[in-house]
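User: Structure please.
Assistant: Input sequence and predicted structure:
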Amino acid sequence: MKSDAAEATTTVVFQDIEVTARKGRLWRVEAAGRVASAEFLDQALERVLPRLSPEELDRLLIKLLMAASTERP
């Protein structure tokens, strides 16, 4: 069993919504009271926030990836 410490977790605020992405075997995204998992982060974001435009999803994806890259040692 994998420990929680092995999973990378990143939280950002996008359009006043707190979005948390966790990378384990799959990406797990929590936002606006919804949760979705997918092999790729963009797929999980589309499932949990289906009303965002493609441009907004791209901005959120970039924001999450940038935050994740600055959090790692």
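The chain has a mean pLDDT of 90.
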